[in-house]
Automatic annotation (TrEMBL):
<protein>
    <recommendedName>
        <fullName>UDP-N-acetylenolpyruvoylglucosamine reductase</fullName>
        <ecNumber>1.3.1.98</ecNumber>
    </recommendedName>
</protein>
<comment type="function">
    <text>Cell wall formation.</text>
</comment>
<keyword id="KW-0560">Oxidoreductase</keyword>
<comment type="pathway">
    <text>Cell wall biogenesis; peptidoglycan biosynthesis.</text>
</comment>
<keyword id="KW-0285">Flavoprotein</keyword>
<dbReference type="GO" id="GO:0051301">
    <property type="term" value="P:cell division"/>
</dbReference>
<dbReference type="GO" id="GO:0008360">
    <property type="term" value="P:regulation of cell shape"/>
</dbReference>
<comment type="similarity">
    <text>Belongs to the MurB family.</text>
</comment>
<keyword id="KW-0573">Peptidoglycan synthesis</keyword>
<dbReference type="Pfam" id="PF02873">
    <property type="entry name" value="MurB_C"/>
</dbReference>
<dbReference type="GO" id="GO:0005829">
    <property type="term" value="C:cytosol"/>
</dbReference>
<dbReference type="InterPro" id="IPR006094">
    <property type="entry name" value="Oxid_FAD_bind_N"/>
</dbReference>
<dbReference type="GO" id="GO:0071949">
    <property type="term" value="F:FAD binding"/>
</dbReference>
<keyword id="KW-0961">Cell wall biogenesis/degradation</keyword>
<dbReference type="GO" id="GO:0009252">
    <property type="term" value="P:peptidoglycan biosynthetic process"/>
</dbReference>
<dbReference type="InterPro" id="IPR036318">
    <property type="entry name" value="FAD-bd_PCMH-like_sf"/>
</dbReference>
<feature type="active site">
    <location>
        <position position="296"/>
    </location>
</feature>
Amino acid sequence: MKYHHMYEKLTKITPEKNVMVDEPIKKHTYTHLGGIADFLVTPETYEQVQEIVKLANQEEIAFTLLGNGSNLIVKDGGIRGIVMNLQNLKEITANGSVLVAQSGARIIDASREALNKKLSGLEFACGIPGSVGGALYMNAGAYGGEVKDVLTSTKVVNREGKLLTLTAEELDLDYRTSNIPDKGYIVLEATFTLENGKYDEIKEIMDDLTYKRESKQPLEYPSCGSVFKRPPGYFAGKLIQDSNLQGKQIGGAQVSLKHAGFIVNKDEASAEEYINLIHFVQDSVKEKFGVALEREVRIIGEDLDR
């Protein structure tokens, strides 16, 4: 088997079913884009996460955390080394007004569990497709709410494989940013402190936000969600719309006709086509309005060898 030495070491840490070799990343991203990962590993415990990080350090092999692939574009050349996905860490528990969610759980599911426990504060997250870990990574938000409003603490693994408990303040959460990427933290769980509320009132807010999302966003096609951050004083979607870019297509990638802030994989696009369309939109808006659109979506991986 290719990479036999590393495969053996990984399967000593986590069961064989959690170690995939030469795995197509497009099967694990919302955009359905991305080449091959040398190893895709899905650990089941915090200890396994720590051991895999330590192994990558010992072997001096590249290590990448994938998250659940919702706010991410992986290039066509794929990712070398070990790619970790925390989809098996998805437990959500509530005790009083405190809700603890593991990083692989969807933030949508955390908001639904809060509703079930009549807890208010996570309603804004009911339409965000990412994982809890990804939500902390980018301080995800929508409809006037964001993670920093309700997060109190988190457990992470650092680059050396050490388990740390940090307060929300120690993450430097700001508009769609945190220090998690710079510090190289792997989020394992998040603790949210919410407020007691009434089930019907919380559900009414979530139903309203879900309707707004479903009626305005192009959920019928694969996409990475909102591509750009909101520029100060403007709305990215409005700038793109006013640049007459809706429907603009490069290969199989298209600026959505339903919401200009989205780029959809309409017809088996390559990552290169998707990224080229992002650059085209940025260049067009800059030329027409003098506004530099900053990407919200992450781009990782390697270009395809020609």
